[in-house]
Amino acid sequence: MNLYSVLATATAAADSAAMEAQMNQAQLVSLGISVVAMIVVFYFFILRPQKKKDKESKELRDGLQIGDEVTTIGGITGIIVRINRNPENSREDTAVIETGGDRSKIRVKLWAISENATVHDAVEETPKKK
Fold this sequence. Notes:
Blueprint: H1 3-62, E1 69-72, E2 77-84, E3 94-99, E4 104-109, E5 113-116
Antiparallel strand pairs: 1-2, 1-5, 2-3, 3-4
């Protein structure tokens, strides 16, 4: 064989290996960008709205008072007559609601209350002028 053909073959093989390595690296970068984009989309469209919803439902449960007209996730409506809070486990908090004209009472978990129809006026503290 000719020395030039051997060198040309070796150079072509080296160039081919270098191009293949660059293509593999480009594919890895593209895959990494795709994964990061999917994580960002997952956060903004799934996790963030769910956290916001959880925060709103916690505020609803914490703001319940005796006399509030509430609706449960099962569609039962009534007026709260008693609230039992468990400081160790908030999943065990219960409320007794009075439903219907015959004043029947039902005990429900606070996490099962989905809506509070009673509007409370916000108490605003005004600084006293002396």
